[in-house]
Specification:
Helix content is 37%, strand content 22%. It has 708 residues and is an alpha/beta fold. The chain folds into three domains: 213 residues, polyphosphate kinase like (2-Layer Sandwich); 166 residues, Endonuclease Chain A (Endonuclease, Chain A), CATH 3.30.870; 160 residues, Endonuclease Chain A (Endonuclease, Chain A).
């Protein structure tokens, strides 16, 4: 392990600021006019959704450190204390949100208008459109709405996390009540955010808040509306779901989920023209900081939005607009050779290991694997981990069917998968009722590994078939995320998978791992050993190389091992989609390290690791990033890819395509900023995801797949 003093704070990039730069790259895709218009809307929505989660989790934790009486404050690897990080986060977030508003107002909205897709203000409506709005308000909205006064006899309601509200200052003109008071109206989630007001075939919409703001006098009769504004509260959602031991993890988590809606506010978003009295009332009610002096800089938790609030609602607009020409070209994932028809999937896996690269390769074989096991009379048992899955999951339905067919079915459902807890509780209960043995993992560890095993009677022998993946068992996200999965019937891999399930369900330990590298037992140690082995090869004058593709690189010990490898002369290529605390290109520290990030149509989610070159190389896939939480607080798996043809596919067909990307790749600079990769003069541009889609499409054309 390197000397702790060898590397200084300036050798590291702040984790939170690195994440914000990732979200800036998401915003760049919305700003890019070469992207299809509705895809730009999606990136605006993703930017907002990402920022919500960042505040609910990361900012909430820093706030607790800075203002919650926790001592001493955490100091990041780059030497910044919690309060200093909050100041920098606030400054950078305001820049990015201003850019988002400018992109929406000045670029996306005019581009939509060119296609006669319009988001109208209430005062822009003609008479027929106004009639549509009036009918909508009186028939659908008015019966649902509940205006709430705020005065001594009506205390302020508890505003829901990420709920959208209108707040108004009222002056009484007649009837009962105080002379002056505040009132709020929540925009019901059961109503659409975009109200269609066009004639058939027209794509004209009005925002729900525009309609309700115009109708406030009807909702609040007897009062004059002095002024009003929309606002939105973001709350601390990183509540420890298991603060205490409980005999029933499911009930404990359900209780904590209810408590989340009443947690502390961490951010207030308001219309840019909100009145001072309305703003002051909201800030005081939520005990937020409006103007706090921090070493000469002003820190505020109020964000002024000069555009539509809560752009996550743009997802609804992308679904409502009917112009397919404004979307990415649809594609059909291919099926690998040998899985193109309704053959015996178990016979195919027994014959050879099979690698799937989603979404370019179809996720259907994974679903078919579980569905076939549910129906096959020779299958004795199915075991599977479920971290996040779709609301209409065919895999969950297959597990239920298997249990009803009398098979021994075990599902480890991770109830602590952040923001998916409620969904997972629903599926856990359904499976329990059907006879599935549902296990909830450990109190203090998340089960993040992705594995499934089918146990099958074949003559006098019992054979195990295993699927290991880098992503969730979710057919929907498998069309949106890039991930890799491996089918194998290798005995050593099956032995390790059985042992891991026994550990997850019964705390069984002491197994000597043959193939799998498991966290929290030894993933960090083994990762650093693999890095150090390349360092020693370089010192001995032998060929060495490290390639890693992952979502986040945060773990300090791993970064220091990479620095040492760079100092020994090991060429290191890192594809880090999101957070990267490693600072590349520092003289004498990280000269041999190159870091790129790809943000494109699909979310880059796969984790690929290659250590060494030629016949000496080792290739691994993993569910884990190089972060302290993955190494120490989660059950994770890194697994080898050993079949020569699959190694060749990864190292010669997948990795080089990613490294050649100069269309959607950004290069991390030593100062922590990113710049777009650009083609060499006279060279064609390479867009990795597009090229991988093209390869899949050409393969599809040569041998059209039959449905599994």
């Amino acid at each position: 392990m390197p000397d702790e003093q060898q590397f200084l704070p300036e050798h590291f990039i702040n984790r939170e600021l690195s994440w914000l730069e990732f979200n800036a790259r998401v915003l760049e895709e919305a700003q890019d006019p070469s992207n299809p218009l509705l895809e730009r809307l999606k990136f605006l929505a993703i930017f907002s959704s990402n920022l919500d989660e960042f505040f609910m989790v990361r900012v909430a934790g820093l706030r607790e450190q800075a203002f919650g009486g926790v001592a001493p404050q955490d100091i990041a690897a780059d030497g910044i204390r919690s309060l200093g990080q909050l100041v920098e986060i606030s400054r950078r977030t305001r820049q990015l949100v201003d850019e988002q508003c400018q992109c929406f107002n000045n670029s996306v909205l005019p581009a939509l208008a060119q296609h006669d897709i319009r988001i109208l203000c209430e005062d822009e409506l003609d008479k027929s459109q106004q009639r549509i709005v009036d009918d909508f308000f009186h028939q659908r909205a008015f019966p649902i709405l509940t205006p709430m006064a705020i005065d001594p006899s009506h205390p302020s309601p508890r505003f829901h996390n990420r709920g959208l509200y209108l707040v108004a200052l009222l002056h009484r003109t007649s009837g009962l009540g105080p002379a002056d008071l505040f009132a709020v109206v929540q925009l019901p989630q059961v109503l659409p955010r975009f109200i269609h007001v066009g004639q058939p075939g027209e794509q004209h919409f009005v925002l729900l808040e525009e309609i309700l703001a115009a109708k406030l006098p009807e909702l609040l009769g007897g009062y004059e509306i002095a002024h009003h504004a929309a606002f939105r509260i973001t709350r601390d959602m990183d509540v420890d779901l298991l603060e205490r031991e409980s005999d029933d993890m499911l009930r404990a988590i359900e209780s904590r989920l209810r408590a989340r809606q009443h947690s502390e506010a961490v951010r207030l978003e308001v219309q840019a023209d909100i009145g001072r009295d309305l703003l002051s009332m909201l800030v005081e009610e939520e005990e937020l900081h409006l103007k706090l002096d921090v070493e000469g800089e002003t820190y505020s938790e109020a964000y002024y939005i000069d555009s539509m609030l809560d752009m996550t609602g743009l997802w609804e607009l992308t679904r409502s607009v009917t112009f397919d020409s404004l979307r990415e070209t649809p594609f059909t994932p291919r099926l690998p050779l040998g899985l193109r028809a309704k053959d015996d999937i178990f016979a195919e896996i027994a014959d050879r290991d099979i690698l799937l690269h989603h979404p370019f390769d179809s996720f259907d074989p994974v679903v078919h694997f579980i569905e076939s096991a549910a129906e096959d009379p020779n299958v004795l048992a199915i075991k599977q981990t479920l971290y996040r899955t779709s609301g209409d999951s065919p895999i969950v339905q297959a597990l239920i069917e298997a249990a009803e067919n009398g098979k021994h079915v075990t599902a480890l459902v991770e109830l602590k998968a952040r923001f998916d807890e409620a969904n997972n509780i629903v599926w856990a209960r359904q499976m329990e009722r059907a006879g599935v043995h549902v296990v909830y993992g450990f109190m203090d560890l998340k089960t993040h590994c992705k594995l499934a095993m089918v146990v099958r009677q074949e003559g006098k022998k019992v054979r195990r078939y295993v699927h290991l993946g880098t992503g969730n068992y979710n057919p929907n996200t498998a069309m949106l995320y890039t991930d890799l999965g491996l089918f194998t019937s290798n005995k050593a891999m099956a032995d390790d998978t059985s042992a891991l399930f026994n550990f997850l369900t019964g705390y069984s330990q002491g197994h000597e791992w043959k193939k799998l590298i498991v966290a929290p037992q030894d993933l960090q140690r083994k990762t650093i050993e693999l890095i150090n082995a390349q360092t020693e090869r370089a010192k001995d004058g032998k060929k060495a190389r490290i390639f890693a593709k992952l979502n986040s690189l945060v773990d300090r010990n791993t970064i220091e091992a990479l620095y040492q490898a760079s100092q020994a002369g090991v060429p290191i290529d890192l594809l880090v989609r999101g957070i990267c605390c490693l600072r590349p290109g520092l003289q004498g520290i990280s000269d041999n390290i190159r870091v790129r990030s790809i943000v494109d149509r699909f979310l880059e989610h796969s984790r690929i690791f290659v250590f060494g070159e030629g016949s000496k190389k080792q290739v691994f896939l993993s569910s884990a990033d190089w972060m302290p939480r993955n190494f120490a607080r989660r059950v994770e798996v890194m697994f080898p890819v050993e079949a020569p043809e699959l190694q060749r596919r990864i190292c010669e067909e997948i990795v080089p395509v990613y490294l050649a990307d100069d269309a959607r790749a950004r290069v991390l600079l030593p100062d922590g900023s990113y710049e777009r990769a650009t083609p060499m003069e006279g060279q064609e541009s390479h867009r990795s995801q597009q090229e991988l889609l093209l390869v899949a499409s050409e393969s599809f054309k040569r041998a059209p797949p039959a449905s599994l």
